[in-house]
């Protein structure tokens, strides 16, 4: 039987998820700008997507940006990007093995195939 979760842990879950989402976004922005030779602290962060107003300032602070712009229609930017992007599908699978008894055949099975 699973342990009973306290209401404190349940209430904290959305904050943890939001923090993870923001850190993921900040990390992605940091890697992208660094690859392009841009210091994110000197850039202007433009927030887009439905939660831009909630996350852009926190992500900007994490990147060291002192300017954040949230366009009036920033919430539709993710929808526009979806319309303009190529249709793709990504698959991932987790397989646990141990170095002492490494299961090479199990590791080499591709997602959706047996």
Describe the overall structure.
- By secondary structure, this protein is mainly α.
- It has one domain.
- The protein is 46% helix and 4% strand.
- The protein has four helices and two strands.
- A two-stranded parallel ribbon has the order 1-2.
- Strand 1, helix 2 and strand 2 form a beta-alpha-beta unit.
- Helix 1 crosses helix 2.
- The radius of gyration is 20 Å and the shape is extended.
- The model has no long low-confidence stretch (mean pLDDT 79).
Topology at a glance:
Blueprint: H1 7-35, E1 45-46, H2 52-63, E2 68-69, H3 77-84, H4 104-107
Parallel strand pairs: 1-2
Give the overall average pLDDT.
79
Please give the count of helices: 4
Write the H/E string, N to C.
HEHEHH
> Could you say which structural class the secondary elements and strand pairing correspond to?
mainly alpha
Helix content: 40-55%
Strand content: under 5%
In short:
The mean pLDDT is about 80. Helix 2 (about 50-65) links the parallel strand 1 (about 45) and strand 2 (about 70).
Keywords:
mainly alpha, 4 helices, 2 strands, about 110 residues, about 45% helix, two-stranded parallel sheet, about 5% strand
């Amino acid at each position: 039987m699973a342990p009973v979760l306290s209401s404190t842990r349940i209430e904290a879950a959305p904050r943890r998820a939001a923090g993870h989402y923001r850190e993921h976004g900040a990390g992605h922005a940091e890697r992208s700008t660094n690859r392009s030779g841009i210091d994110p602290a000197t850039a202007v962060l433009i927030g887009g997507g439905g939660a831009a107003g909630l996350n852009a300032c926190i992500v900007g602070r994490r990147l060291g940006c002192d300017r954040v712009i949230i366009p009036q229609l920033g919430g539709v930017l993710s929808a526009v990007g979806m319309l303009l992007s190529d249709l793709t599908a990504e698959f991932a699978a987790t397989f646990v093995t141990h170095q002492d008894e490494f299961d090479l055949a199990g590791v080499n099975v591709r997602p959706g195939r047996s």
